[in-house]
Amino acid sequence: MTIPASKVAEDREASRLRAPIGNCPNPEGLLQYEPRLRIDVLDRLRNASVLSAAQFDKDLLCEISKLSAYLQLRKYKVNRALEDKIMAAAFFEPSTRTRLSFESAMLSVGGNTISVADAKTTGVAKGESLQDIGQMFNSYADVVVVRHTEQLAVAELSEYLRIPMINGGNGSDEHPTQALADWYALLKWRPEIAFGNIPDKFKLNIGIIGTPGNMRTVKSFLQLALLFHENINHITIFSEMADPLGDGLRELCDASPIGINFSRDLQGSLEYLDVIYMNAIAFLGDGYRFYSEDFQLNADSKLKHDTVILHPLARGEELSTDLDRTQHNLYFNQADGAVWVRQALLLAIFDRVRNSVPDNLLI
Amino acid sequence: MTIPASKVAEDREASRLRAPIGNCPNPEGLLQYEPRLRIDVLDRLRNASVLSAAQFDKDLLCEISKLSAYLQLRKYKVNRALEDKIMAAAFFEPSTRTRLSFESAMLSVGGNTISVADAKTTGVAKGESLQDIGQMFNSYADVVVVRHTEQLAVAELSEYLRIPMINGGNGSDEHPTQALADWYALLKWRPEIAFGNIPDKFKLNIGIIGTPGNMRTVKSFLQLALLFHENINHITIFSEMADPLGDGLRELCDASPIGINFSRDLQGSLEYLDVIYMNAIAFLGDGYRFYSEDFQLNADSKLKHDTVILHPLARGEELSTDLDRTQHNLYFNQADGAVWVRQALLLAIFDRVRNSVPDNLLI
Amino acid sequence: MTIPASKVAEDREASRLRAPIGNCPNPEGLLQYEPRLRIDVLDRLRNASVLSAAQFDKDLLCEISKLSAYLQLRKYKVNRALEDKIMAAAFFEPSTRTRLSFESAMLSVGGNTISVADAKTTGVAKGESLQDIGQMFNSYADVVVVRHTEQLAVAELSEYLRIPMINGGNGSDEHPTQALADWYALLKWRPEIAFGNIPDKFKLNIGIIGTPGNMRTVKSFLQLALLFHENINHITIFSEMADPLGDGLRELCDASPIGINFSRDLQGSLEYLDVIYMNAIAFLGDGYRFYSEDFQLNADSKLKHDTVILHPLARGEELSTDLDRTQHNLYFNQADGAVWVRQALLLAIFDRVRNSVPDNLLI
């Protein structure tokens, strides 16, 4: 079947002013408790690298979320804030979403970007070490965002690097900015998770599809979830692995007051899950494969009426498009929010928050 | 043979101030009838997608051409007009010319660009749907330019997209901005085509090499040609296909007062063609192949002395380089003009024409 | 072994303010003789292409080095100097270092960039000639930086090109901006090489690994070395080729007062070499291969205490990382300086030096 471009043009004319799809919580909600930004907290990120979710305590995550909210509300003019700075995007592992998200974020705050989108064109292809590539970035940029298939890449690049580095995903280890975007979405949706006191019977039940010990988005997301133990009742991890957490995470989870259990019955758990964190793939020890139907969600799934679904995207058959136009769809807003979160991180790393908001907004 | 760079340096020293090659009509010619811009006409493009040549009537094509002429004449300073905007170039089908042309245009008006130059590095490679990729661009950019091998891509990307999209070529369907550039060149060459009244014996005879129904540049070019029926006498389509037009185009052509016929004898037709629209390839039902010698032009071809040749480029053997330094060569100017046309479109889409020219230039 | 990102984050916290590694000479040294810039000399580059080291006499090399020093010292605000200009990076041969170096340079002076990082996505893949690609750049950019595997590419691109071109490496012919960066590093290290009068017994002995006649970085470096014959005693070329220079170079070298000899014994020569220019590869007539151990340097090599090593990078086993933290390491500073040199060239090509420094700095 073909739909000629001329027909599409007619259709778009009619849809020119349509609203965003899915659940789009108002960022103002995040700002109703304490609208001012704690600049001493944000200052921890000055000239810092953002490599792991472990660097974020509840305070820092909240202040970054609040700054992101101001940016998303477009309250202040920041489009020249970083005009003298260059961000290098070093993507040794292909990615469109994360790379374009960072580039868009940097350009929106007036910054400049240089990119390596494909490892085959880089020095690595010539056998150059990651240490030397790290040294190279000292001369070309003021901050570098890295994605690599190997966990060790962050450490190796870091050896000679003297500029801040943002981890855009290192193998199966971490993806901290994705997790920050995930929680920014959840805190817009229910700011009381961070700022309020949820009665016991309404504390959150979260379901996570995947194997945190082996999947970077899930690992980072879970680490940040533990920060909100006061308002989270329970986390269920749906995985087919024997040991889904791995050592480091298991210790953190054992020490947390949040009840954490493991299950293989997603469909049977839907009736009590408030948040479902979905993924496209499962690591099973013998390689990546796609989820079976048991782990799929669609408009017929027996979700609670107010359940929200997160997904780092790209998605496949595990998350049906017939959920897109429902209020369960927080995953589009989650991806959209990532650009504001990355703008916030860049402003904080370069100590330009003071230049971007009025003084009386800072405490 | 080698020519060392040192020798080339000497040669370039001598040629530093050389003039452009080929036929370079003065853009002032376009502005001599009504120099003022009809802003109500240009406003039709505000926040609009540009997907098909069918969106352009004669008025809009003329006003865009006039605005392009002002930009080419560098009369007004526009290099910050779109400084707060981001254009995404999503090129799922490789292209250097079109991508760089758009990027250059956006940067020249102060805008920012992010790019996907190679589909192998995108989510599509991960099996992500074009609908989801369209949704993604909502967050990363203010306008997206798309090129894809499949006709359907424009419709699929458009499903969730809420920002304007410019069609940079969708399969064999359309390439509207290329056609606008083609006609911008022709209107600079003979503005009376649009603005004047050409006596019958001097009305244009146009030759088009190719199969409009299956070749996007040719299809879009022909659609715009029909707008100038008052001053075009005849269009000859040189194709080896049984049905070169396809249904939609055939209806448009049948309804047009312009005489349209089909021929396989390009060489025998040269003596009466004023404009020849060449192409590198012919779609023949069994795949693309290159033209035979019958469809080649060179300095020995029996062209009328004032015939101009268009070609969307890249070109191969069908268009000989020995024509480059002749007045027949309008194809270099055609490619050059495309950047100004794309600047004009971007300014109109973002409603920044008023910011770019003096008020007294607008009616 | 894995090092989790969380651990790297801790380590980087401790190293946040660490100093650059290796030998980092103060650019002020270059400015102590005649701090003012000879604008008549820099004006030779106005609208000029930079294709060959042969274009640089001692005066021009020195003035470019001085301008680079001012830029590296960040004495003047240049971050909008070229805001209305576009640089195209046309990299038909993959390179990360050179492309990112030029992009970083252009962005730092306020310019804009468009890039072709991979020839497979270009018109060349469609069989388009380099002449036509040169013509294309006239419309898209104000300056084009080119790297290509073929020597002839510079001449072919140049045929229709009307904007300045910078040669980023054409086959085995030249790499002039790399050589300028090499000598910028050496002049920062010992400005008396250019500006002073070194007593005979302290004049420089330089060792060059490689085959200048066949290796572009080495050829360009050697050509510039000959400019400093007053303060260079001897150049030894370590190559296994029968005719390492080729005709053009041999004539230049024969005419030079500098003593030039050939050797295969690098290790036995270390005791008298002040500067060693290393390379990763050797052209041997039957293709490129890596150097044997005889041509490797490491912390145990019997270098003079104050010998400095240059290397255009990427490096392999020929230059051991255990030299990185020693004062022999000038190769990191050499790469860093290349960005400042490229900024200086761009400012000079576009005649924006006057806009970038105070009038009283110019003579």
Explain this structure.
Chains A, B, C: Pfam families: OTCace, OTCace_N. Chains A, B, C: GO terms for molecular function: amino acid binding; carboxyl- or carbamoyltransferase activity. Chains A, B, C: This is Aspartate carbamoyltransferase. Three copies of one chain form a homotrimer. With 363 residues, chain A is an alpha/beta fold. Chain A has two domains: 162 residues, Rossmann fold; 160 residues, 3-Layer(aba) Sandwich (Rossmann fold). In chain A, 34% of the residues lie in helices and 15% in strands. Chain A contains 13 helices and eleven strands. The first copy, chain A, has a five-stranded parallel beta sheet. A four-stranded parallel beta sheet of chain A has the order 2-1-3-4, sandwiched between helices. In chain A, strand 1, helix 4 and strand 2 form a beta-alpha-beta unit. In chain A, helix 3 crosses helix 12, helix 4 packs across helix 12 and helix 7 crosses helix 9. Chain A is globular, with a radius of gyration of 21 Å. Chains in contact: A-B, A-C, B-C. Chains A and C meet through strand 2, helix 5, helix 6 and strand 4 of A and helix 1, helix 4 and helix 12 of C.
Spatial order of the strands in the main sheet of chain A?
7-6-5-8-11
Distance between the termini of chain A: 59 Å
CATH architecture of the largest domain in chain A: 3-Layer(aba) Sandwich
- The arrangement of helices and strands of chain A along the chain is HHHEHEHEHEHHEHEHEHEEEEHH
Family (chains A, B, C): Belongs to the aspartate/ornithine carbamoyltransferase superfamily.
Function (chains A, B, C): Reversibly catalyzes the transfer of the carbamoyl group from carbamoyl phosphate (CP) to the N(epsilon) atom of ornithine (ORN) to produce L-citrulline.
Domain Aspartate/ornithine carbamoyltransferase carbamoyl-P binding (chains A, B, C): 50-186
InterPro entries (chains A, B, C): Asp/Orn_carbamoyltranf_P-bd (IPR006132), Asp/Orn_carbamoylTrfase (IPR006130), Asp/Orn_carbamoylTrfase_sf (IPR036901), Asp_carbamoyltransf_Asp/Orn-bd (IPR006131)
